[in-house]
Amino acid sequence: MNSIKIWAMSLAAACVIGAIISFIKPDFSASKVLNFMLGTFFIAVLLNPFANGKRLNLDMDFKSEATTVSYSESREYLKQMQLSAAARSVKEKIEQALNKKGFDFNEVEISMNTDKNAGIFISEVIVTGVPSHQKQKIYDYIKKEFKLDCSVRENA
Predict the structure, then answer these.
(1) Binning pLDDT at 50, 70 and 90, where does residue 124 land?
(2) pTM here?
(3) For residues 17 and 14, what is the distance between their CA atoms, to the nearest angstrom?
(4) CB-side exposure of 130: number of CA atoms within 13 Å?
(5) DSSP strand E in 3-141: where?
């Protein structure tokens, strides 16, 4: 298994080196020769494990701890990733809207959850660092534009 990792790393390094050389090479009449040399280098790295009668070790250990994750754990992880992505998206939209309207605030926090039907819903919206004279305006704006209840907190 270790030899496969080393071979894959060598292959990736050869690709990166070839790409860098291809990008920085000047356009000149010998560029075909350079392309041929890069291709030959890549093929040499690709076939290196089979050179001199060596064989690639294909012994793979499928009993690693990484594969012992249960279905419920992976579902829970996926659900958390979805919640996180949805919260980030909603946060960005609210921040952009508040900035566009010229409101002053420090941060928007979004808490999301799921219900039994696997639906995602916003459980809490908190806007912090708001000047006292804009507190009610921000609350009203979020309620009107996003149809969400929120908590607006002043500067401490």
Answers:
(1) confident
(2) 0.52
(3) 5
(4) 22
(5) 107-114, 120-130
Host domain of residue 106: 71-154
| CB neighbour list of residue 120: distance below 8 Å, 6 or more residues apart | 82, 83, 86, 112, 113, 114
82 and 47 within one domain: no
Co-location of 53 and 79 in the same domain: no
Which of these three, 67, 96, 119, is where a domain ends?
A: 67
The Cβ-side half-sphere exposure at 53, using a 13 Å CA radius, reads 0
Together in a domain, 44 and 103 = no
Backbone angles phi, psi at 114, to 5 degrees: -125, 155
The domain boundary residue, chosen from 67, 94, 120: 67
Domain count, the chain: 2
Is residue 72 packed enough to be buried (19+ CB in 10 Å), middle (13-18) or exposed (0-12)? exposed
- 26 backbone φψ class: left, alpha, beta (φ>0; ψ -120 to 50): beta
Q: What is the pLDDT of residue 103?
A: 92
In sequence order, the β-bridge partners of residue 112 are: 122
